[in-house]
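Why do we care about 3D structure at all? Because function follows from shape, and shape follows, mostly, from sequence. That is the central idea of this module. The next example makes it concrete: a single protein chain, its amino acid sequence, and then its structure expressed as tokens.
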Amino acid sequence: MNADKVLDAKGLACPMPIVKTKKAINELESGQVLEVLATDKGAKNDLTAWAKSGGHELIDYKEENDVFTFWIKKG
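And the structure:
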């Protein structure tokens, strides 16, 4: 999947992946896609809830080698 911006939040503990994701998505235009890489196990629930509450769309996510990758479309 093609992303307009990639955020590497690997190694960061909650709430930093959310804080950095919020900052990064604010730099995008509506409809653009942010790819977030995280290793925090709580990131899946946190980013899913954050995207929904912020009017964004979690397009997809995958877990590979203990790294979670999320694609979030800005609302």
